[in-house]
Amino acid sequence: MIKVGIVGGTGYTGVELLRLLANHSGVSVEVITSRSEEGVRIDDMYPNLRGHYDLQFTVPDVEALSECEAVFFATPHGVAMKMAPELVERGVKVIDLGADFRIKDLELWSQWYGMEHTSPELAAKAVYGLPEVNREAIKGAQMLACPGCYPTATQLGFLPLIENKLIDHRRLIADVKSGVSGAGRGANIGSLLCESSESMKAYAVAGHRHLPEIKQGLSEAAGRPVGLTFVPHLTPMIRGIHATLYGKLKDPTDGLQELFEARYADEPFVDVMPAGSHPETRSVKGANICRISVFRPQNDDTVVVLSAIDNLVKGAAGQAIQNMNIMFGLDEAEGLKHAGMMP
């Protein structure tokens, strides 16, 4: 059994890690931390986990975490980069669900996150954990940066087109909607039921922190810098991300459906839907799956890709576990074979 620790176990991604790992046959969760909830039992805070864990939240402690083989950081940015170096030095595999190690250009990272990066050496070694792109590098990783939710849905949708140089890489558009859980569990007026229900709004149109991460991944796939307009929206649902992605085809042609099917034929967690389908967020709720469909409306030169994920699973905790499985040589789908929850 792989001994696992989780730093930051009280947020939505932390409890989602606990929910998914409860059914993982190869993992034992040994440590769960929270400074604010020290001494509180997991099942007192999350009664859905009654019978699955007999653990209390503890204050983060490097000595205790070093007894684990893998440690997940489900924490705000700025936390993992302070603790991860010592854990890595002690031989622990670290999987950061936050943003500390996603962007390689640390000056750019500092511009978007408003603080100096304190672990540049580890950042240089970190592997970006999008399995559909970096599976081989993930196998040997000790420090892994789990992609953000918006970047996961957006990159998976654009990748077949970018890799095959079929669209104008300078004029990409991502119109993406997210459920309220993407804002986290902390008290926030904007995510209160009365504020977010029966309403939808765009936000961060001038620039969102996930923009440089998405551009980094797509630029690597394109072999040159891409131009991207990324507009996120808050929608009145708890979970889910729906990305509507637009590109201009260089040479309008048929065969896009076959292109996507071929690109993801061997990917266990990407489902290219039949031609003409429209993926729904409810079909991926609770599941570690990205459902994609591709269209060329009116047979014109615009391609539209629809990409749907659960922001807490394939966009966070599920993808982190998928990466852990790869890192330890386990079945990639272990603990992640849940079907989506409908209705």
TrEMBL record:
Reaction(s) catalysed by this chain's protein: N-acetyl-L-glutamate 5-semialdehyde + phosphate + NADP(+) = N-acetyl-L-glutamyl 5-phosphate + NADPH + H(+)
GO CC terms in record: cytoplasm
Superkingdom: Bacteria
SMART domains attached to this UniProt entry: Semialdhyde_dh
Protein keywords: Amino-acid biosynthesis, Arginine biosynthesis, Cytoplasm, NADP, Oxidoreductase
Residue intervals of the Semialdehyde dehydrogenase NAD-binding domain: 3-141
GO molecular function, one term: NAD binding
Enzyme nomenclature, EC number: 1.2.1.38
Main localization (coarse): cytoplasm
InterPro entries: AGPR, AGPR_AS, AGPR_dimerisation_dom, AGPR_type-1, NAD(P)-bd_dom_sf, Semialdehyde_DH_NAD-bd
Pathway: Amino-acid biosynthesis; L-arginine biosynthesis; N(2)-acetyl-L-ornithine from L-glutamate: step 3/4
Location(s) in or outside the cell: Cytoplasm
Class in the EC hierarchy, top level: oxidoreductase
One Pfam family recorded for the sequence: Semialdhyde_dhC_1
Active site: C149
BP term (GO), one: L-arginine biosynthetic process
Gene3D superfamilies: Dihydrodipicolinate Reductase, domain 2, NAD(P)-binding Rossmann-like Domain
Its biological purpose: Catalyzes the NADPH-dependent reduction of N-acetyl-5-glutamyl phosphate to yield N-acetyl-L-glutamate 5-semialdehyde.
HAMAP family listed in its UniProt record: ArgC_type1 (MF_00150)
Family of this protein: Belongs to the NAGSA dehydrogenase family. Type 1 subfamily.
Name of the featured protein: N-acetyl-gamma-glutamyl-phosphate reductase
Provenance organism: Amphritea japonica ATCC BAA-1530
